[in-house]
Amino acid sequence: MSPSQKLNAPKSDSFILSNVRLVDPAAGIDGPRELWIENGKVREVAEKGALTKSGAAKGNELPELVDGKGLTCAPGLVDVHTHLREPGFEYKETIGSGTLAAAAGGFTSVLCMANTNPVNDNPYVTKYIISQAEHHAHVRVYPVGALSKGLKGEQLAEIGKMRDAGIVAVSDDGIPVMNSYLMRKALDYCKTWDLPIISHAEDANLVGQGVMHEGFHSNCLGLRGIPAESEEIIVARDIALARLTGGRVHFAHLSTRQALEHVRRAKQEGLRITCEVTPHHLVFTDEDVSDYDSNFKMAPPLRTHADVTVLKDALKEGVIDCIATDHAPHAPRDKDVLFEFAANGVVGLETAWSVGVGLIDEGVLSISKLIEVLAVNPSRLAGIPAGTLKAGSLADLMLTDLGAMNDFSSASLNSKSKNSPWLGKKLKGRVVATFVEGKCKWNS
After folding, report:
1. Catalytic residues
2. Is residue 237 one of the residues assigned to a domain?
3. How far are the Cα atoms of 115, 229, 292, 422 from residue 340, in angstroms, in the given order?
């Protein structure tokens, strides 16, 4: 399929997706397959040609055929770290625009963080987000509730009521929880429902007024630095609290080799610890800040080449469980300022898959491993029905042309905000189509 072609989207609720390479690590499949999709679910998965041949032989009327020749089919991707900005910051992103970006990136489910306005720290905001998603979302939206009221790190939020309203995890993401006693209470409380706490691992006192990684390049650029130890300290503390309480901790956007060593040892110990890495921390380094481009400013900051190497090794070895985008849209007024004053974060839903394909070409990951860290493991972490296309599962899937090139530009991005470090770059691996419950939500 050439880059200019589109998939002929099905017109009915029952269709056979034929001539695809199916990669479904949870089912142990990587090879030519046909999928029979009916009423939003996978009815049957068969060897190439088996469904069409058996139906014709029996004289049965075949469902609509959708030819996926040259395409790879995989379970829809799941992002456990997305900022949709609604309610309160719709000038940056909306549930509609953010989930369209997700669909364009092959994601069929996203977990949206609680740092909205008002903060998602009570069941009323949770229900509002779910209601807005039901009316405007292009993919499935699962809210993450705040750990503390108002993200202030002083009192626990209404976690139980939010859980009943529909949250799947708890986090003060964007702001580290500095109160160790509060973190302990949260872990004890969340254990009741087996809810994971997503930890933003930075020591706020060490971060201070820092804006990039502390080291050679921060000194050269005259910018205040953030030491790697700011991440290591909170990771070590939260692992100790997980050991104390038996609770679940998921570390967001890890960036340093020191922090990963703590995670590695905690997993060997059998503690309930998981972690993620972002695409930008796998590709860029503190050296990329040299032009003072605020699209390279994020929290935690970009680290060293040595850290990037360790992150890739940890991903390959399974120490890192997920790739998560930390999709953080910001309007020009938040980014087009001096580097020191620019908001942290970049958009990432539409570039994550292509960055992952680049890791395949580097030999860091196989395609099965890439699907594992972008779909299988994230769905298990969130406890949602996704990550596989076995018979009977929801027909949430993506189709990709692994060889097609993407030219990323402000005009090509579907997100309302355009703060991407990949603008002007060409990346391989194009998402051709995304289906949610058998309905085509994106067709390139």
Report:
1. 326
2. yes
3. 22, 21, 9, 21
